[in-house]
Malate dehydrogenase
Amino acid sequence: SKAPVRVAVTGAAGQIGYSLLFRIASGEMLGKDQPVILQLLDLPQAQKAVQGVIMELEDCAFPLLAGVVATDDPNVAFKDADYCLLVGARPRGPGMERADLLTANGAIFTVQGKAIAENANENVKVLVVGNPCNTNAYIARAAAIKVGRTNPNNYHGMLRLDHNRALSQLSAKTGRPVSSFKQMVVWGNHSPTMYADYRFATSNGDNVKALVNDAVWNNDVFLPTVGKRGAAIIDARGLSSAASAANAAIDHMHDWALGSDDWVTMGVPAPAGNSYGIPEGVVFGFPCECKGGSFKVIEGLEIDAYSKEKIQKTLDELEGERAAVADMLK
Ligand code: NAX
């Protein structure tokens, strides 16, 4: 049987953690033959709640769960980690400005990026879920690059929830099952500016754009529905999306680690000289191919005028976020 791998999860006592940990431990992320050791990070005041979650993990008697560590010290949480899911983040409090939010999270993710680079496995794969996830991933990566050791391409932000939301909206519109769709893309920032793009998508071999054939629906219904879905869930549930966010994190890591026969949307550092003109290192939603434990941005897709405008808008937002944290990364 395989040796266990170490999976660090931050924000372990939170609501996404409560969905995520059980699915990692049951083998849904890394395979039903892959034992895991969970290394749980949360704030000191959340340690009692983490112990409660651990009691429940024990009570599931998961055959693949080879150990659990709980800590409030990032150096302990990330020690020898093969995978890091950075879920914990500073939420926006009442009266908090956007710039304050970026700075508060900048402080968290510089510390965590450094701790990962100093302690984790050199081949560690890192996924940032905590918002603003693209910029938090950018910050963690910048801090990690200063240390060296780990692969700078392996600091990702999570766009997969947007990708999955787009698939389900297309399924509802066309009456075709979600499983029939391939080659969905979501470009840019995990925010309402993201651009969900089905121009290249197929459903059982049919071109989805031709199938939908409704530019007004695309612009006035589809994009706003996908872009504002998080807010709609908060409005309905009184809490932000958690199970679906955990599901997307499982999907992202699963496909990255084990491969996929479909395109996968990932927030990844823009490759140098990419064909879309995204500045190198900006953590941006791209279509990716995953094979043999690594990923590659799919380059050279045609970008029409409408798409160019949408991509520019979400890039402008990310560049604004990057400028707001630039001083912290010096
Ligand atoms: P919760 O508030 O339920 O849980 C957050 C947990 O993180 C808490 O236990 C808290 O103590 C912990 N935490 C805070 N700072 C920490 C730190 N420095 N180190 C370790 N732990 C820390 O939030 P939850 O609903 O679980 O959401 C977590 C994050 O995911 C939020 O930032 C949220 O905005 C983000 N989301 C991202 C999504 C995406 O698609 N990328 C979608 C869902 C979600 O909105």
Observations:
- The pocket of NAX is lined by residues 10-11, 13-17, 41-43, 46, 87-91, 108, 129-131, 133, 158, 161, 190, 230, 240-242, 245 (CB under 6 Å).
